[in-house]
Design brief:
alpha+beta, 60s Ribosomal Protein L30, Chain: A, Phosphoribosyl-aminoimidazole Synthetase, Chain A, domain 2, 10 strands, about 35% helix
């Protein structure tokens, strides 16, 4: 008996890591002080008087199953880079570096490399260093072909400049930034409705009313809002990333206890893929807005006098307002 017969192929893992190294190193900047493959990743922090580090971890969830079904592995890394970076940008922080975690029982080596190379490509685009991570073969934990992908991102902000929603006041307004689709949340429900059961939708079938296939709609990459946020950051009083939990679950995380947020649901057009899920699965509006982003992936809170300028710079939509209340979010 040896490790390979027990389910862990060290030689194959070493070959995969060697291929990964080329993509990962391309994300490095002069601030990286360690080599690829070291036991820890070192990053030089400079240019800040009183830096505050901000960190967040997230997971790809069951979007991984859609990627496997479609045989497309080179985009879900970007999902993790963008999702994780968006989360810490809700504090006003600038993403610096990220670590990935990829686990599987048995998966084609080329697929593994595609996942990490896609991850690294997104890091390069978003100016985030892929400073380290873990690629683990775990016999018996995952079914053959299945995999798990997570990421931890670290960013920085100057002390005293944190955006936490505490300055939001009655009369402020909400600017919504469009999503590319489901992003990385709600896939257990979407898969159950569209891809399972007695009459599953083929991935190459068109979403009604669009030129996109179901597969393309479900695998659309989670949008990064870094450009939009950085362009108007000094004007922002609060930022919420609309992920699992929808509008209520995420806006309430930064809303002061004595204020309510009114969201005008008719102020934007809900993308066709969400309508398809609702119609085919008999999903109520209440449930849909609790699970999905419904076409709005991030919301910005600003003073009413700044709204038009922020809307123009971000290409956003005025979707709501702040009123006195009890820390609740109300659809209208």
């Amino acid at each position: 008996m040896d490790y390979r017969k027990a389910g862990v192929d060290i030689a194959t893992l070493d070959r995969i890591k060697k291929r990964m190294s080329r993509a990962v190193k391309r994300t490095f900047t002069e601030n990286v002080v360690t080599e690829f493959g070291h036991f820890g990743g070192g990053f030089r922090l400079k240019g800040y008087r009183k830096p505050v580090l901000v960190a967040s971890t997230d997971n790809i969830g069951t979007k991984a199953k859609v990627a496997r079904l479609a045989g497309i592995y080179n985009t879900i890394g970007a999902d993790m880079v963008n999702h994780s970076s968006n989360d810490i940008m809700c504090t006003g922080a600038t993403p610096l570096f990220i670590l990935d975690y990829l686990a599987f029982t048995k998966l084609d080596a080329d697929y593994i490399a595609q996942i990490v190379e896609g991850f690294a490509k997104a890091c390069k685009k978003e100016k985030v260093v892929l400073i380290g991570g873990e690629t683990a073969q775990l016999p018996g934990v995952h079914k053959p072909g299945d995999f798990d992908l997570s990421a931890t991102v670290v960013g920085v902000i100057e002390e005293g400049k944190l955006i936490d929603g505490s300055s939001i006041k009655p009369g402020d307004v909400v600017i919504g930034l469009r999503s590319t689709g489901l992003h990385t949340n709600g896939y257990s429900l979407a898969r159950k409705v569209l891809l399972e059961g007695n009459a599953p939708f083929p991935l190459d079938a068109l979403v009604p009313g669009t030129k996109k296939t179901v597969g393309q709609a479900l695998l659309a990459v989670h949008k990064s809002y870094r450009k939009e946020v950085e362009g108007v950051k000094p004007l922002l009083k609060g930022i919420a990333h609309i992920t699992g939990g929808g509008f209520r679950g995420n806006i309430s995380r930064i809303l002061p206890d004595d204020l309510d947020c009114v969201i005008e649901r008719k102020s934007w057009k809900v993308p066709a893929v969400f309508k398809l899920i609702q119609e085919r699965g008999n999903v109520t509006d209440t449930e849909a807005y609790r699970v999905f982003n419904m076409g709005i992936g991030m919301v910005l809170f600003v003073r009413s006098k700044d709204a038009e300028g922020v809307r123009e710079k971000t290409r956003g939509i005025l979707i709501g307002r702040i009123v006195k209340g009890k820390g609740k979010v109300h659809p209208a």
